[in-house]
Amino acid sequence: MPFSQVYPMKTDILVLGAGIVGVSAAIHLQGRGRSVVLADRGEPGGGTSYGNAGLIERSSVIPYAFPRQLGAIVKYALNNSSDVRYDPAYLPRIASWLARYWWHSSPSNLEKATRALLPLIEASVSEHDKLIGRAGAADLIRERGWMSFYKDPRRFEAARAEAESLSAYGLATRVLEGREFLALEPAFAATGSRIVGGVHWLDPKTVTDPQALTVAYANLFTTAGGKIVRADASTLREEKNGWSITTAEGEVIEAAEVVVALGPQSGLIFRKLGYPLPMAIKRGYHRHYAQREGQPLGHPVVDEEAGYVLAPMARGIRLTTGIEFASPDAPPNTIQISRAEDHARALFPLGEPVEATPWLGLRPCLPDMRPVIGPAPRHRSLWFNFGHAHHGLTLGPVSGRLLAEQMAGNDTFADPRPFHPHRFL
Questions:
Q1: CB 309 within 8 A of CB 320
Q2: What is the pLDDT of residue 1?
Q3: Contact at 8 Å (CB) between 425 and 415?
Q4: Which CATH number fits domain 1-65+105-140+206-279+366-425: 2.40.50.140, 3.50.50.60, 2.115.10.20, 3.90.1150.10?
Q5: What is the pLDDT of residues 237-294, one digit of tens each?
Q6: Kind of pairing, strands 227-230 and 141-142?
């Protein structure tokens, strides 16, 4: 019987994680002439990329900071708000991270984070547009922007002032009086809700199915010759000349370089390799509801006072919550989404839930409000691209570009140093 030997598949780069961040990085690396294999234990876009408000958020030029006003801190400490909830038993485990988050949220540090992120935020829509056009995914995109609304006149006036102050960033906004908001979204009038005004953010684009968009980008990657495999990232091994991983079918893939783009699961790799990066998890929920006949929702809308989003999507109206601090492994807790649903039903005629239970997702966050994008200091062929917090969908393509430019030794469109992992090591 003749002897046969099975040789490993070889590739230039192995990208771990097929969410919007990993898929985008794979496309950009492929576009620079590199052979790329994309590995994930699930389907493209099936993890954190599935559950978001569908905003390509050009208007989020100021990162989400830890509140520093005493009144806000007391409010959240009471743990009865709908926008932020915490599990008291989990707080001791995350207390040091919260302290770092608070420190990085000082006015000077927040300005530093804003300056670092601004080139990425400014390019977020245009980088998506390139991939949307190539992937033929325009049917998933709406160009209506999104709207915030207010019931408290003082909060509305503060929002008006904030929108005016952000004009320096080149943002297109329209401040809406209550009647103007209801003219755009008349279904809110059906509940008799007293909305005093809002702000229409015109620059962002919105996505009717975030997972479908990620799948469209993944199809673009495979059509151009890329390969997607099912594999558990825990099988990653460092080899003499690079890295290897074993697929679910038992195939070994060897790569000269590896990119960790596993979102909230990235810690499985960077901790194993000796990098104590301070990544924490913010949990969040969503649920779809039927849209009532004759009472449509035309734009994603944000209740800034209660901290939830209503977004029209392919499966219905998606209600997404704010932040929950609880163990990533803890079972879902319906308190927060129930609070948000109660607020939403008081203002908008939501139909019945589409799913039997809400979806729970994990947002990977760094305390300085910036993702990690760049080379691992102690491994020449290891690269990181994770920690995008609330803006994975927004920043996926643009962070993929920044990573690919570094890996190819090209000039970068933005300064990559504020995103390098060495800032924590």
A1: yes
A2: 40
A3: no
A4: 3.50.50.60
A5: 999 999 999 999 999 999 999 999 999 999 999 999 999 999 999 999 999 999 999 9
A6: unpaired
